[in-house]
Design brief:
The protein has helices at residues 9-21, 32-41, 58-67, 85-93, 106-120, 125-128, 166-177, 185-192, 203-218; strands at 2-5, 26-29, 46-49, 76-80, 98-101, 140-143, 146-149, 154-157, 160-162, 183-184, 226-229, 233-236. The protein has 240 residues and is an alpha/beta fold. The N and C termini lie far apart (44 Å).
C-alpha cells in the first residue's frame, strides 16, 4: 500500500493512476489530517509526500513520521516542485529515503517506488518485477558482531535484529563493503544518497549517530565499530 499526500488534484490523480496501472495499491490525500487518520487505520508500505501542502507541510509530516515509533521506519519519498540541491538536502536531512522533483515522468515515479519497496522487502509481486528483482545478491557482510544479509534485507548485531531505516541500512552496507577504509562524507553522500552537495549538511553525521545508537542498544560498545576519522569521514573496523 502506498500513501500519497498531494494537494494538487490533477498531479495526485495522475500519479495514483500510474501506480495502480503498475499493480501497486495506493491511496491519495489532499492534506495532513486525512493522511494522519489513515495511518491510524492502516500503515502503508511507502509514503509519498509533497513539500508544499496547506497547513502542515511535507517536511513537518516527515518529521512526525520519523518521531513516531510506529512509522519511523516507513520508506518516504519527497515529490515536490522544489528541485534545487538545497531543497533536496533539506528533505534528506529530515529523513527522506528518496526525492523526486516536479515535473517528473510517471514511469520514473513507478520505477522509484518499486525500488524503494523492493529494498524495504515490502510490496506485491508487481513491485518486485522481473527487471531488477534480483538486484540484491546473497552477499553476507560482517564486521565483529555486526552482520548484514543483503538478500533478506536484515541487519543483526550480536544476534539481535536491528530495526534500520532504508538509508541506515544502505549506509551500513556501504561501510561494510569498504570495511577498514576511510570514506569521506562527500563520498557517502554520493554513493548512499546520490547527491553531490558541497554546502553544509548533517545528513551523514546524523545517520551515523543514529546507527551507532542502535548498535549500542543491541550490544554494548558495538557502535564503536563505526569510527570517526578526523578530517576525513567514517569507516567501520573491528578493533578486537
Amino acid at each position: 500500500m502506498i500513501y500519497y499526500v498531494e494537494d494538487d488534484t490533477n498531479v495526485r490523480d495522475l500519479a495514483l493512476y500510474a501506480l495502480k496501472h503498475a499493480g501497486l495499491e495506493t491511496r491519495g490525500f489532499d492534506s495532513a489530517e486525512p493522511f494522519r487518520q489513515a495511518l491510524q487505520e492502516q500503515l502503508p508500505d511507502l509514503v509519498l509526500l509533497d513539500i508544499m501542502l496547506p497547513g502542515t507541510d511535507g517536511l513537518e509530516l516527515l518529521e512526525e513520521l520519523r518521531a513516531d515509533g510506529r512509522t519511523a521506519h516507513l520508506p518516504v519519498m519527497m515529490l515536490t516542485a522544489k528541485g534545487t540541491e538545497y531543497d533536496k538536502v533539506l528533505g534528506l536531512d529530515a529523513g527522506a529515503d528518496d526525492y523526486l522533483a516536479k515535473p517528473f515522468g510517471m514511469m520514473e515515479l513507478v520505477s522509484r517506488c518499486k525500488a524503494l519497496l523492493r529494498r524495504a522487502g515490502r510490496g506485491t509481486a508487481a513491485a518486485a518485477g522481473s527487471a531488477g528483482a534480483a538486484e540484491e545478491s546473497a552477499e553476507l557482510l560482517r564486521c565483529g558482531v555486526v552482520e548484514l544479509d543483503l538478500a533478506a534485507h536484515e541487519a543483526r548485531c550480536d544476534g539481535v535484529s536491528l530495526d534500520l531505516t532504508l538509508k541506515e541500512f544502505d549506509l551500513l552496507a556501504k561501510l561494510l563493503r569498504e570495511q577498514g577504509h576511510a570514506l569521506t562524507r562527500a563520498q557517502l553522500l554520493e554513493d548512499v544518497w546520490d547527491i553531490s552537495y558541497v554546502g553544509e549538511t548533517r545528513t551523514v553525521d546524523t545517520h551515523v549517530q543514529t546507527l551507532r545508537r542502535k548498535l549500542n542498544a543491541a550490544s554494548s560498545g558495538a557502535g564503536n565499530l563505526v569510527q570517526t576519522i578526523r578530517g576525513v569521514g567514517y569507516r567501520i573496523k573491528d578493533g578486537s
